[in-house]
Design brief:
- It is a single chain.
- The protein is an all-alpha fold and about 240 residues long.
- Helix 2 runs antiparallel to helix 3.
């Protein structure tokens, strides 16, 4: 039960972190707005809550000396995936802090970058937050106070990562993947793409038949010789 719970928590954290990464990419662009900054705040708070809960569950599980070898291997794999999510979240929070400071909403120091992206990002945030409505009342000083809060939260995430490494020592290079590289290409979700790739590879292999290539070369040589002979006859005439 503990392993399945940790998997579910890690899956939710992974999706929320990916959502936050997507939203951060639009800060400072033509789609930047008050709603985007508020969605960023709610999404990172959700990610931090999930990170705290997931880290606590994994820490308790890995410090249990009664774990079987199979369970420990699985929990270590989940721990490495969890550490990767935290690293990405911390990097994106730092990126959001830098972009938010460079592109303030109400007292802009420079024009927003015209990225060509228009519209809001409420759909992405709604999927991560499971919220039906993300309409908020704009506050003039929201971005300023949010940047101060974000700066504190970046430090907290960094402290969380250091605390994790002190409590549980799982070197990432000692954890082996359960699947071989590229195994996800054989899954049902990518079956269509794989079949298309197989067809294209097969067509390329057919087009590179050595006997056909030799015949095409000989035909080209004969054609060139005929053209040269025709030109010489025209000149002599």
């Amino acid at each position: 039960m503990a392993r399945e719970e940790c998997k579910a928590l890690l899956d939710a954290l992974n999706k929320t972190t990916a959502c936050y990464h997507h939203l951060v990419l639009t800060v400072g662009g033509s789609a930047d707005s008050q709603n985007l900054r508020e969605e960023l705040q709610k999404t990172r708070q959700k990610a931090r809550e999930l990170a705290v809960t997931t880290g606590a569950r994994l820490t308790v599980a890995l410090r249990n000396r009664g774990l079987t070898a199979e369970d420990r291997t699985e929990f270590e794999r989940l721990w490495v995936a969890f550490s990767g999510c935290l690293d990405i979240l911390e990097a994106d929070m730092q990126r959001a802090l830098a972009l938010g400071a460079a592109f303030p909403l109400h007292t802009p120091l420079r024009p927003l970058v015209r990225t060509g992206v228009t519209g809001d990002s409420s759909r992405v945030a709604a999927r991560a937050l499971s919220a039906r409505s993300l309409s908020h009342q704009a506050e003039r000083d929201f971005d300023v106070s949010d940047l101060k809060e974000l700066e504190r939260e970046v430090l907290q995430v960094g402290e969380m990562i250091n605390d994790m490494e002190m409590k549980v020592n799982v070197p990432r290079w000692t954890v082996q993947a359960q699947q071989t590289a590229g195994a996800e290409l054989l899954s049902s979700n990518s079956m269509g793409a794989s079949s298309v790739g197989a067809v294209s590879v097969e067509e390329r292999s057919r087009s590179c038949n050595p006997s056909k290539a030799l015949a095409a070369t000989l035909f080209s040589a004969v054609l060139l010789a005929a053209v040269a002979l025709a030109l010489s006859v025209v000149k002599l005439g």
